[in-house]
Amino acid sequence: MEEISKPIIGITCGDLNGVGFEVIMKTLIDAQILDFCTPVVFATSKVASYHRKALVMEEMNFHIINSLEQIHPKKSNLINCWKEDVNIEYGAITDEVGSFALRSIDEGLKAWQAGQIHALVTAPVNKNNITPEGKKFTGHTGYIGEAVGGEPLMILTSQMLRVALVTGHIAIGEVAAALTTELITKRINQLHKSLVEDFGISKPKIGVLALNPHASDGGLMGDEEARSIKPAIEKASESGKLVFGPYAADGYFGAETYRQFDATLAMYHDQGLIPFKTLAFEDGINFTAGLPLVRTSPDHGTGYSIAGKGVANEASFRNALFAAIDILKARTEHQQLTKNPLKIGHRQREERG
Questions:
Q1: Can you tell me the distance from the alpha carbon of 287 to that of 313, in angstroms, rounded to the nearest whole number?
Q2: Using CA atoms, how far apart are residues 328 and 7, in angstroms rounded to an integer?
Q3: What pTM was computed for the model?
Q4: What is the mean pLDDT of the chain?
Q5: Exposed, middle or buried, 184 (CB in 10 Å: 0-12/13-18/19+)?
Q6: What are the residues whose beta carbons fall under 8 Å from the beta carbon of 237, sequence distance 6 or more?
């Protein structure tokens, strides 16, 4: 990856009946953002005009373009991605806005694949009104992972903690069967790699949660800890990684044990997201690790209940934007430091004598 002086960050519009466009505008209205990146929103000028007027934010001016070659490096850009009108109804769940949310995502992915943007920040969508070619849409993570390749890993991150998930959007009744030593080992390796390459932590410490209450109390409540989780931790430790556990989730978060680690690996969605959103709901973000594309998003949903009222908090979206910039920088620095390691070693030997 070449060094990027000021990255171009693509921004998808999300569900247009929710708070996505509001938090986008509240973030980009700060002109200082342009010192760090060049943003480009994938939507239409008509959509932007509707939200600007409805939210009384007409001082938010976009540089409207019809192709990415027209991007202005010192302005917040918005590219027209479709010509159709959109019926926007704040708080409503409609298939129409779902289809345009998906189109925005697809246009952002095309732009990245063409090398026209460096990263993608996605505004919140509703999984229930998005149907790509009749398939079930389970979220940005899987959809983007399939589009760009790689092994996606969901990491929730804030200044306070980072949480990654072994299993994602699957039914709770399917979690235990899915927790194999192989899968947990894979997630540990993915998380470790991301902490090194995306967050610049040379020797990360990872805390791994148990599945069962009290970490099964020695097998009294399930055997997943002994059968799958501990062997994965031992395998990681043998390879030189600093991985510890399994910890009972309630005590781990209640006693703030998570502060001792650079990241926590949870076994299933709510085990990781409930404490994370309790502790970092306003400023936490979602990062999809394991992909060639840097993709981040705010760690909140569409906010239908407050959509159109002008009260949405943009902190999470703003943090997602800056996280994308920081991760791009960390990846570049890591690749530069690890490029040609043998040549560096040879030169050091020559210097020694």
A1: 19
A2: 8
A3: 0.90
A4: 92
A5: buried
A6: 243
Q: What is the DSSP letter of 249?
A: H
Give the pair of three-digit tokens for residue 96: 């129409």
HEC states along 78-140?
A: EEECCCCCCCCCCCCCCHHHHHHHHHHHHHHHHHHHCCCCCEEEECCCCHHHCCHHHCCCCCH
CB 105 within 8 A of CB 82: no
Beta bridge partners of 208: 265
Question: CATH says 1-151+291-353 is which class?
Answer: alpha beta
In the CATH hierarchy, which fold is given to the domain comprising 160-282?
Isopropylmalate Dehydrogenase (3.40.718)
Distance CA 270, CA 141 (A): 16
In the prediction, which pLDDT does 341 show?
A: 58
Backbone angles phi and psi of 206, in degrees to 5: -120, 130
Question: Averaged over 67-79, what is the pLDDT?
Answer: 97
Q: Where in the chain is the domain with CATH 3.40.718.10?
A: 1-151+291-353, 160-282
Tokens for 139, please give them: 């979220």
